[in-house]
């Protein structure tokens, strides 16, 4: 492994530990919430990279319910643009202070700071106005997204939206599934168990 690869691997492992120890929100420990296990997600990233489904020079990623942006930050090292939408503005407000705390620790350990390719938006992932704002501010349209992501919430509505409006071949990664995998019209199961963590399934839009 090259030195740069080793430093990136150390960075990603540190970020996963940092966020996995902070599964709470603006109400302190009483605000504990379910969120993506980033340690498991690193295995998902590894498989997507191995299959050339994540490209640092090309891939546009969109988290349809990004919370404090932890998945966006982790993916930012592997994609061209990392976009997120969060309907709860108080949760979204946690992104910047938590990111700054992370960067401070990364710098202290001589690890890699996140790239400046993250854009998060307050709003509903089901409303066109949200995507109009994203396009206006980033130049990226819904049909430019290569990889959509959700933590199971509203997965059926998101599946319908992607099947209807995304480009052919767009990917939909759903976290939270195990043995019973839903089917969506217009989407096919590409990888039933991404990263062999028994937690995520990858779908692909078909024409």
* CATH architecture annotation name: 3-Layer(aba) Sandwich
Major sheet size, sense and barrel closure: 7 strands, mixed
What's the tally of helices? 7
Mean pLDDT: 92
Which stretches are poorly predicted, pLDDT < 50 over at least 5 residues? none
**CATH domain class:** Alpha Beta
Radius of gyration from CA coordinates = 16 Å
Percentage beta strand: 15-25%
Overall tally of domains: 1
Given helix and strand content, the structural type is alpha/beta
Q: What helical percentage do the residues reach?
A: 25-40%
From the N-terminal CA to the C-terminal CA, the straight-line distance is 39 Å
Note down, in words, how this protein is organized.
The chain is α/β, with parallel strands linked by helices. The protein has one domain (3-205): Vaccinia Virus protein VP39 (Rossmann fold, 3-Layer(aba) Sandwich). The protein has helices spanning 3-20, 38-50, 70-75, 89-92, 95-108, 128-138, 155-165, and strands spanning 60-63, 81-86, 118-122, 147-150, 171-175, 187-191, 200-205. A seven-stranded mixed beta sheet has the order 3-2-1-4-5-7-6. A hairpin with an 8-residue loop joins strand 6 (187-191) and strand 7 (200-205). Helix 1 packs antiparallel against helix 2. The radius of gyration is 16 Å and the shape is globular. The model has no long low-confidence stretch (mean pLDDT 92).
